[in-house]
Fold this protein.
Amino acid sequence: MDSESEYSNEDDMDGGENFEFQEENFDESPQSKTPITKEDVLRGLDPQGIPWSTLGTSRAEYRKQRLNQYRNYENLDEAQRSEVSASSLQHDVSQHNVKHVDRNNSYYSFEKNERLVPSRIVHFQLRNLVWATTSHDVFVAQAHEILHYNYLTGQLTEILKPMQDKGKLQTGRLQISTMCVHKSVCIAGGFYGDMVCVRCPGEQGGRPEVLFSERITTDENAITNSILAFEPPSGALLAVISNNDCVMRVVDVENHFKEIHRAQFDWPVNFSAVSPDGKLACVVGDSTEAAILDLSSGERIATCDKHLDFSFAAAWHPNGDIFATGNQDKSTRIWDRRTWRCLATLQGRLGAVRSLRFSDDGKYMAMVEPADFIHVFDVNSNFHECQEIDVFGEIAGVSFSPDNDAFFVGIADRTYGAMMQFRKTRKGLLDSSHYFP
């Protein structure tokens, strides 16, 4: 990950990975912060509240403009890339598309856009800032805090404060680069190897309990790029942490983040995903390759190397047989754990694949671009059927609810930033799910 590419707000993002409407078009009226519901959209309101009639263009025309003008950020030029050429990538994409990828499916329907819950991106390459714990509870990171929002009660609660146990942090407060939430435990990582973990209060309320608040590395280049909490069959709550100091760490969360595994690489580690049985890790970073590690021995047992640029996303399917990697070459590759062969190559519309998530039931995989597009693939169709969610703005993160009934999209934009909630489409029970004109 680019260590020099630190941003205090989304206005300054590099490489074309940004979107802001012009300031003269800002709508700061009280109505601009009220929620937008599916009923509002059915009456003709834009799902994001964008007043197209006053902007001198239509949604369709602006979409064409975005597709033509967006510049994808890449770290490697043609001379620096591996033996895998761009033509080879396009061949693999074309091979998957021979049967045609149908992007007009509806698995999740627009339910509500909560405009009082915007996201805030601090580093343009890191987009795992949204986590759902139920179909109505979602957590979102901002620059120095994490908020919890409940769609049923409308209550917004501060979970991680800007000055959390400041004496043990590098700068006195946590500048959040990434986060994760697992059940009642919320973990946030920062730009200097800082790590803060809190236990969220229950339904009776109260204050979050600080479980850990220290630096896990003193390396000068120690940005925390990703955190993923998981429970292996042993039952202990563990977290796999990826840092720019070229180390992947597995820690025992409830034992003061005691380090139980580590692996050193020749490149900064951007994301690590652990297999459902807790035995393997897929590790990606500032390299074209994905390393597969045996966590018990630390041995690298396989290398999957077909991408053209650096990777920032990985995910295991709940059945453990397949996993996915997402790259700045704008592709996602689906791999077979049994043969380590690439089964499919998927491509988006605008830019790099910044985040990947499988639903807990294994039916869907969300592929997230830096802006505008989220692609929800039907896994059982061998990734040939997809729902394309089309929005405007930088995407801070997405999350399926654990019961798979809801899907959340965090949008980071100074004017139209919000948290969008989608609900599982039930034919005959919900209105038409195609709410995006």
